[in-house]
Amino acid sequence: RTLLVRMVSQAGTGITFNARRGRLREKLTLLHYDPVVKKKVLFVEQKKIRSL
């Protein structure tokens, strides 16, 4: 089973995107492009959206 989770930028820009992760995995932290600051920044899992 997988979960759909919301990822939020740690740069404080309010940019979010959705990602999938396994149900038994730890919370996600990813480097992802933030178009407001125009560079890759750390995104952390904010909340679970739904099961897939």
Q: What characteristics describe this protein?
A:
52 residues; mainly beta; Rubrerythrin, domain 2; 4-stranded antiparallel sheet; 0% helix
Describe the protein's architecture and organization:
By secondary structure, the chain is an all-beta fold. It has a single domain (2-51), classed as Rubrerythrin, domain 2 (Single Sheet). Helices cover 0% and strands 65% of the residues. It contains no helices and four strands. It has a four-stranded antiparallel beta sheet, with no helix packed on it. InterPro entries: Mitoribosomal_protein_bL33 (IPR052008), Ribosomal_bL33 (IPR001705), Ribosomal_bL33_sf (IPR038584), Ribosomal_zn-bd (IPR011332).
Question: How would you summarize the topology of this molecule?
Answer:
Elements: E1 2-9, E2 16-22, E3 29-34, E4 39-51
Antiparallel strand pairs: 1-2, 1-4, 3-4
Main location: mitochondrion
InterPro entries: Mitoribosomal_protein_bL33, Ribosomal_bL33, Ribosomal_bL33_sf, Ribosomal_zn-bd
GO biological process, one term: translation
